[in-house]
């Protein structure tokens, strides 16, 4: 749809009288044509002509004037319903209100203390086919629930109980993942009963998150400035000094370090790399896992 609109009307909010037709065939659908008309634009933007409002009004009227068509007059509830342009135009085309359905959207974000009750009851602009109130899903509702909730029982907002060991964890689901991955994090204890497969997937997810964080640190140019100790022990990290090769034996496994130490190690590693002109790809090598 986006591509077709741009092809016809350009990429800069231009308008066109030409229709984009999408045909859906199925034995189970009504024989109906749904025409999605543009909203009224008051102030021209982008490539829109100065008479855009009049042009869109003419276009809309050419469709809704037909006696056989049903008008869906869509108005957001957080605007002044009494001055709704959609309802005004619908009333012009259908003065008796016989073939107009009123649709009131965004009921969830109306101003505090106001309601659309009288409108929905048809007391303001009476319509034979009535009104429908709509609340669209918010972005938050669209985002899928974290799969690790499967292993938790939600007690209340920000409190959950581990299905394997009964441990109560407060905070976000991320804290539960620390628990299942047996990674110490603040007061989160490692799970004693987590099945191997759940442990492995939690560990993978947490390591990926750690990698992402590491990438962010790599991308930061002010990294040396935020080294909290001001001391970089190169030898400790790379084994540099014993022949100049980067030996990593004796380096503690990152996984076993607590979060703070991990971050410190990350900073030290990157600082050392910058100091020694080492390629950052080293970070991705197996020896640093
Ligand atoms: Zn547990």
TrEMBL record:
Domain of life of the organism encoding this protein: Eukaryota
GO molecular function: DNA binding; GTP binding; GTPase activity; microtubule binding; zinc ion binding
Domain Dynamin-type G: residue ranges: 1-195
This protein's UniProt keywords: Metal-binding, Zinc, Zinc-finger
UniProt GO cellular component terms: cytoplasm; membrane; microtubule
Residue ranges of domain BED-type in the record: 143-198
Protein's recorded name: Uncharacterized protein
Species the sequence originates in: Tetracentron sinense
Upper taxonomic lineage: Eukaryota, Viridiplantae, Streptophyta, Embryophyta, Tracheophyta
């Amino acid at each position: 749809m986006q591509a077709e609109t741009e092809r016809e009307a350009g990429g800069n909010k231009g308008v066109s009288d030409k229709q984009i037709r999408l045909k859906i065939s199925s034995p189970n659908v009504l024989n109906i044509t749904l025409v999605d008309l543009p909203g009224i634009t008051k102030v021209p933007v982008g490539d829109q002509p100065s008479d855009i409002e009049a042009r869109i009004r003419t276009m809309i009227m050419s469709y809704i004037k037909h006696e056989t068509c049903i008008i869906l007059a869509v108005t957001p509830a957080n605007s002044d319903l009494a001055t709704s342009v959609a309802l005004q135009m619908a009333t012009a085309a259908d003065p008796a209100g016989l073939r107009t359905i009123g649709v009131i959207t965004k009921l969830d974000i109306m101003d505090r203390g106001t309601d659309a009750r009288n409108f929905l009851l048809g007391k303001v602009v009476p319509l034979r086919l009535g009104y429908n109130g709509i609340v669209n899903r918010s972005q938050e509702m669209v985002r899928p629930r974290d799969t690790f909730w499967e292993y938790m029982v939600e007690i209340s907002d920000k409190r959950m109980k581990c299905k394997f060991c009964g441990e109560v964890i407060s905070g976000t689901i991320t804290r539960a993942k620390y628990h299942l991955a047996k990674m110490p994090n603040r007061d989160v204890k490692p799970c004693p009963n987590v099945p191997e497969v759940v442990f492995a997937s939690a560990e993978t997810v947490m390591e990926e998150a750690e990698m992402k964080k590491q990438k962010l640190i790599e991308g930061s140019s002010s990294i040396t400035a935020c080294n909290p100790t001001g001391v970089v022990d190169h030898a400790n990290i790379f084994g540099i000094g014993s022949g100049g090769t980067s030996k990593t034996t004796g380096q503690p496994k990152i996984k076993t370090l607590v979060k703070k130490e991990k971050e410190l190690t990350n900073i030290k590693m990157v600082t050392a790399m910058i100091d020694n002109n080492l390629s950052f790809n080293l970070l991705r090598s197996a020896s640093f896992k």
